[in-house]
Amino acid sequence: MTISTNDKRWHKEQLYSLFSQIANAMANPHRLELMDLLAQAPRTVEALANEAQMSVANTSQHLQRLKQARLVLDEREGVYIRYRLAAPSVAGLWLNLREVAAGQLAEVEQALNAYRSQLHEFEQISADVLLTRLRQNEVVLLDVRPTVEYEAGHLPEAVSIPIDELEHRLAELPPDKTIVAYCRGPYCVYADEAMELLAAQGWPVARLEEGVWEWQQAGYAL
Amino acid sequence: MTISTNDKRWHKEQLYSLFSQIANAMANPHRLELMDLLAQAPRTVEALANEAQMSVANTSQHLQRLKQARLVLDEREGVYIRYRLAAPSVAGLWLNLREVAAGQLAEVEQALNAYRSQLHEFEQISADVLLTRLRQNEVVLLDVRPTVEYEAGHLPEAVSIPIDELEHRLAELPPDKTIVAYCRGPYCVYADEAMELLAAQGWPVARLEEGVWEWQQAGYAL
DNA sequence: ATTATATTCAATAAATCTATTGAATTCTTG
DNA sequence: CAAGAATTCAATAGATTTATTGAATATAAT
Fold this sequence. Notes:
2 copies of one chain form a homodimer.
Chain A: H1 3-26, H2 29-40, E1 43-44, H3 45-52, H4 56-68, E2 72-77, E3 80-85, H5 88-104, H6 106-115, H7 127-135, E4 139-143, H8 147-152, E5 159-160, E6 178-182, H9 190-200, E7 205-207, H10 212-217
Parallel strand pairs in A: 4-5, 4-6, 6-7
Antiparallel strand pairs in A: 1-3, 2-3
The structure holds a DNA duplex (30 and 30 nucleotides).
């Protein structure tokens, strides 16, 4: 065992240490929720704290750990500091993690069924079918995420009515067409809530399970 | 704030908790090294402990954490217990993590340059060029990983000579051809060591940076 | 300058993670 | 069934992580 061999070991351990720093930054449910929110749109600390229902100080500390791992960037904007994902590949890694969790942990499906109690109640529509039916002017695509998220990027031809405002803005939707709702992706309930509301008013409804990232990753354009 | 709203929150937190369990399992340098070894080939606890230079008890505990997160499976085989990655997607996640780390943390490149001191000393060859030159019988593709790893899966037409045995088995290599060495991928030094040895004996050498997983992921067959 | 507001810092206690040690299990083999 | 070997368990101390507080900092507005 020469000195250079031990040296090599040390360098190897350095590398694995660096790799684990990324996993470490993601190894907390709150930080994953923050990443998920930032994958939809950049936001201030306060906005993130509100969405994730945690204290501002706690949110700030978690954001700083993500920043240390270079998973997010911050930028001052007047009184506020706006955080964003550091790169598209970061969102990709988060989606990948979620997918592996769903594949390996049976508990994920159970938890999802409990969270999205209406998961099997309404029709789902695939991206392909959606596109052809959009082209034939048969459906309206409805984005029910908060406005900032819509503005940060949305599906082609999507109309924005945040879930909170939907009840008061039903008049904006054509009464004769099928409404296809989508939100942040398969782990988001907003589109389910929208469909429930719309179906009660007589609309034919369907849901696109994909969110903006999944849509993009499947090779479709925005 | 109704009871059902709090309920939804609770379910959402359950989901993020599950996702973070996967990240948590990966959030340790030793466990990542174990995953990397298992991505090359299934192995017993003892074999893993030797390769990763850690105690058997410690290795066992880390493996059990990976097992709890369903990232690895174990199977008794006589006196031994053999561990393997639970699914191909697990290897994909590990590669993805490593890639993001390389992209986001500048320290990774520094550490890699220190670890692979001969990184820029020898010629690199791309998968495409390798395939055409193999077809034209101009090169020999040499797999210098341990035998178990070669047997678990290797590149087409690759010859196996583990790096430890290379010095004594030089006669098996054709003296007139270029030797293209590969090992576990861009974070492995075996192929560099092989090239150094072969070049000193007069062989023209080159390295394929890809390992078996990267090769497969790029769409090539085994 | 002073005030107000958004964010971060610092300090703390409770909880979790890690490597080490030696003993306990669980197989196979004779 | 007894011996031997591979693996796991249990207990421990030291290190790290977390949420919570209240104070400190930095910028915008007055």
